[in-house]
Amino acid sequence: MNLFRRRKRDPKLDEARDAFRKVASELDAAQRTLLAAVPTARASGVSLADAVQGYLDGLERLESHMLGWRIPSTEESWQKCAQAIAESGTLARGLASQPEGLEFEALNARLGEVIAPLEEFAYAALSLRG
């Protein structure tokens, strides 16, 4: 009896993992674009309108890769992530209507609210490790 037998790899799940990596890369890039609005000691940060538009463009690129990891075994996570993208996009559009020059703390809090729904992707990544 072999207790340490390896399970056969599911090729569809492997393809889904590869597609998810592309999505995660686009997600990271989109978030970085949004966070570029935060001023630092060395730079004043990009305009909020530009950061939000770049973020929304990034979410569109992210969505273009979403179908690649939608398989029956990832459906529940996929649905939650698709909803998170929509929610985050809605929050970002609301943020774009804010006046420029939000105080540092207020800006950070609002950006955090926009990004928060995308935490679903972290849970999805854990479920894809399987």
Features:
130 residues, 68% helix, mainly alpha, single chain
- For this structure, the quaternary state is single chain
Helix/strand-derived category reads mainly alpha
User: Overall pLDDT, averaged?
Assistant: 90
Main sheet attributes: strand count, strand direction, barrel closure? none
Query: What's the alpha carbon Rg, rounded to whole Å?
Result: 18 Å
User: What's the number of structural domains?
Assistant: 1
Helix content: 55-70%
Report the order of strands and helices: HHHHH
Task: Give the low-pLDDT segments.
Answer: none
Report the portion of residues in β strands: under 5%
Report how far apart the termini are.
24 Å
Tally the beta strands. Answer: 0
The number of helical elements comes to 5
Inertia-based shape = elongated
